[in-house]
Amino acid sequence: MNATHTVVLAADDLSVFGQDPWWLVVIKSVLIFAILVVFTLFNIWFERRVVARMQHRVGPNVHGPFGLLQSLADGVKLALKEDIVPKAADKVVFLLAPIMSTVPAFVAFAVIPFGPEVTVPFTDITTPLQLTDMPVGVLFILAVASIGIYGIVLGGWSSGSTYSLLGGLRSSAQMISYEVAMGLSLVAVFLYAGSMSTSEIVAAQERLWFGLILIPSFVIYVISMVGETNRAPFDLPEAEGELVGGFHTEYSSLKFALFFLAEYVNMVTVSALATTLFLGGWRAPWPLSLWDGANEGYWPVLWFFAKVLLFIFMFIWLRGTLPRLRYDQFMKFGWKRLIPVSLVWIVAVATIRAISLEGGIDRTYLLAAIGVVAVLFLVLFFVGGAEEEAAEAEPEDQRHGDFDAFAGGYPVPPMPGKAVQGRTSVSLYESSPTLSKEQS
Predict the structure, then answer these.
(1) 386 part of a folded domain
(2) Per the UniProt record, which residue ranges are transmembrane (predicted)?
């Protein structure tokens, strides 16, 4: 199938959108909102249970069966707390910031396909299990998700707190860095699908998922989506040891709950986008795909949310396993690893795709070439960082050499392993003849 034919199919398939009656559009919108809110309550409970199991604890198990109502109880508790607004805060912006973070998280789900066309119960209306779609649906998601960062930045700025401001600035720098890599990882998907429409990308994965043939893009996207959502180990805007609580330090009650809701809805959004672009969307995995009715009716909704839940588990697993990165390492990883690898990978995919469309290479050889390139990129991706760290490491003789406590003009204590005047360590008052023990 050539690129021109693919575009024609996209135009024909997109014609099914925009034909629903107004009441059906309202029902779809309410259902998406309700699903995301319920999914958020479930994810909070799921995270606490999984992390508790990893740490040999019980987790929530009192409120409701298996503690399922614990998240609802926490939400009610937040709503009933006192709403505090700092005196130094810009009250209007302080109030609007949580809303600006939450609304885009819900709007981004408007173009996510949950399933194929179905017949609405008790009617003869046929409609796709998707609110709407457009020729640039994926770009719409990226654009809307980017608006949410304004709520975080403005929330940190309007609080009148240095810690909150630093958290907001960190979040904006983090979003810019990792959204570039995320966008570049999607270019290979566009080249293979011949469209930026989410429904067309799912249709293009009928035979083979893009996550299998575009492994580097998939890996880069997964890393970028963790950084994009400010989740551990990339939760630097909320570093408790450095910024108290980050951009939401001064928030309480429902406004804090909105920031919390936006974070968890964004987790579902990026997971749903990963499912749509790389794991076949709502299509059933093998061997369930061998069943003729697996991709018909409302069954695909089950496969879709099962894949999304798999990514949610990955978020939780990373949080309970990995320590938080240092900020300079985190930014360096995004700019010096993810973005260069993405650019080279796009050139390789575009070249292979052009040769394939012209009939100059067999599909078997094409997949083999992609596999070889993917392995090379993964090796460079993980091994290159270790070599650079080894090259930047301080030489052994310098690490254990003599230490001059007054080299910078002020007496400072030596680092572990350093020696001052032939001794392993020396206290501050001993290294300075002008300071008494009481003054130090």
Answers:
(1) no
(2) 22-46, 92-114, 134-155, 176-196, 208-227, 256-278, 298-318, 338-357, 363-383
pTM for the model stands at 0.78
Phi, psi of 259 (to 5 degrees): -60, -40
Task: Tell me if the bond preceding 287 is cis, omega within 30° of 0.
Answer: yes
Residue 316 lies in a domain: yes
Q: Which segments within 84-143 are labelled E, that is strand? A: 117-119, 126-128
How many angstroms separate the CA atoms of 298 and 116, rounded?
8
Number of compact structural domains in the chain: 2
Q: Is the dihedral of CA 204, 205, 206, 208 positive or negative?
A: positive
Please check whether residues 336 and 424 belong to one and the same domain: no
For residues 166 and 59, state if they share a domain. Answer: yes
The whole domain housing 433 covers 402-440
Type of residue at 100: M
Which of 326, 343, 360 represents a domain boundary (last residue)? 343
Q: Does 91 map to a domain?
A: yes
- Amino acid (one-letter) located at 165: L
Q: Which two tokens stand for residue 194?
A: 């011949």
- Assess contact for 267 and 207: CB atoms under 8 A: no
Q: Please report, in tens digits, the pLDDT of each residue of the chain (440 residues total).
A: 444 343 333 334 677 787 888 899 999 999 999 999 999 999 999 999 999 999 899 888 888 888 889 989 988 888 888 888 888 888 899 999 999 989 998 998 999 999 888 888 888 888 888 988 889 889 999 888 888 888 888 888 888 888 888 888 888 888 888 888 888 999 999 988 888 999 999 999 888 899 888 888 999 999 988 888 878 787 776 666 555 667 778 888 888 888 888 889 999 999 999 999 999 889 988 888 778 788 888 889 999 999 999 999 999 999 888 888 777 888 888 888 888 888 888 888 888 888 777 766 666 666 676 677 667 766 666 665 555 555 555 554 444 555 566 666 666 666 666 665 544 444 444 444 444 444 44
Whether residues 296 and 412 share a domain: the answer is no
Spatial distance between the Cα atoms of 210 and 217, rounded to a whole number of angstroms: 9
Alpha carbons within 13 A on the beta-carbon side of 64: 12
